[in-house]
Amino acid sequence: MPRVTSADVARESGVSRTTVSYVLNAKSGVVITEATRQRVLDAAARMGYTPSAAARALRSGRSDLVLCVLPDWTFGPVIDRLIDHVTTALAEHGLSVLVHSGRGTQSLQELWRAVTPCVVLGLAPFADADREALRRAGIPVVGAALDEDPHPDVFAVPQISIGRLQVEHLADRGHRVLAYAAPADPRLSAFADRRLAGVRLECERRGLPEPRVAAVDLAVEDAARAVRQWRTGEPVTAVAAYNDEVALAVLAGARAMGLRVPDDVAVIGVDDIPAARLAAPALTTVWQAIDAQADHLVASVRAALDATLPLPARTDDVFHVVAREST
């Protein structure tokens, strides 16, 4: 069935296309009788007319589309929750979100020129050249960063702090020989390398030995191999895992080795996913303020589009440990 156009509405209501355009776009400074305005609106509703997003973007110079650019990361509960929260909240303000994963060869400039977004939202920093090109095009950029960031519209999620917090929790419980369970997927290195750096820094600050590092795939056999390696020589008594999924694999590997958690080895994860509470024993983890991050991004997008709105305040409670039986 062909799409209903403004010309169809004009014929149906017996007025010019210009009048239809003025009515449907609520044009100010134009005198149109209430009877004519209502006749156009009734015809549009009766025919099921919906305005063309492309045409609206051309008229206003801006679309209602927020382009959310993801680096080449794996998707998991945290990213899913963040995007769902942002998409739902922006929809309440008449904005749609297009999520683009940074895989493939298409450049960011090619992408934003093709979709003409009103805002570009990045979950990792953009190259200076991309940020400058967007600025020249009049497209605001907001987003998040994995380290402290000087831009006021960027929500900093310093991954080093997560690693330090894990060691702080374990060391305060008397553990001195620690291991770090890294993810096996190299696409997560941006997160994992920073978290490991935090683990190393806190171990050094407390005079603890260098943490023993192994990549752990999400398989019992692979996790058992890592645990076996950590128990040789001076045995590791606590493991800081990259995230809860890796931590759950370590729990399974410890069970396969006949070890008791936390008596023989303690384990701490990151993200506080629902499965962490259901593990045996329940998993200690580092909670992240995902909802606060999503709220900040939404408020930053709205402030970028409306100069009368203030930039959102930052929350101090970005991370904290949720202590459970695994430590």
TrEMBL record:
Pfam families: LacI, Peripla_BP_3
Taxonomic placement: Bacteria, Bacillati, Actinomycetota, Actinomycetes, Micrococcales
Domain HTH lacI-type: 4-60
PROSITE patterns membership: HTH_LACI_2
Keyword annotations of the record: DNA-binding, Transcription, Transcription regulation
Protein name in UniProt: LacI family transcriptional regulator
Highest taxon above the source species: Bacteria
InterPro entries from the UniProt entry: HTH_LacI, LacI/GalR-like_sensor, Lambda_DNA-bd_dom_sf, Peripla_BP_I
Coiled coil: none
SUPFAM superfamilies, per database record: lambda repressor-like DNA-binding domains (SSF47413), Periplasmic binding protein-like I (SSF53822)
Leader sequence residues: none
